[in-house]
Amino acid sequence: MIGRFRWIGVVALVVASACDSGSPPSAPSPIVTPPVDPGPSTPQPPPAPPPTLGVTRILAFGDSMTAGTTSVAFVPFTLTAGKAESYPFKLQTLLAARYTAQAMEVYNDGVPGENTPEGSARFGGELSLAKPQAVLLMEGANDLNNPVLQLDVTSITGRMEDMVRLATGRGMTVFLATIPPQRVGGKGNPALVDKYNGQLKVMASKKGAILVDVNALLPLSLIGQDGLHPTEAGYQKLAEIWLDAIKARFETAPAATVRR
User: Fold this and answer.
1) pLDDT single digits (tens) 63-79
2) Angle 62-72-69 (CA atoms, 0-180°, nearest 5)?
3) CATH no. of 52-252
């Protein structure tokens, strides 16, 4: 009996010793969820290529409304886009932003105060110098304001026709613009504007020029205080008008992107 109780006591002491060891119970290990395999990644389609234009060298020819100035002297031809306020400069900016894969060149060949006899005399030489693929032609307002020339609208149109014929004969595309509206009481001669523009439209259709009806698209509110020249906002609008005409004639849409 004594031996039996001693054995039980030993067991009790062992159990008690285990319970009083002071070791905290171990926490259960957290369950780690493996990340979900997303599978093979879907390739993103490449960005669409930009549109392209069939010409990259453009000559803007005309008077002060091409030069972008009213009275400050301007170098007739410097193979640059000209002053920042001029429509050729703004047009080049628009072209560069749209046709990012091409180097676009727009040359400002506007001479303030020039009439069509003067313009016609220098036109051929300027074409030889610039070698443009397309010509933007807008001139004649100074003739209408000249007390000698203003009554002979047909002769003015004839000189514009000579310039169109010369450029198209060299394989250049000619965009021929009507002149902008003029405000009564300003420097211009609005009474003759409609007659002149009407003759330009007829001539353009006969001689293969692309008519750009600036008069219809440029509102009178964008003509400045002198009643003749556009404001800078007007020149911006004029650049946009030219851009639309060039796009319609020469732009090629990018090829559709094929997903693989």
Assistant:
1) 988 988 543 334 455 57
2) 45
3) 3.40.50.1110
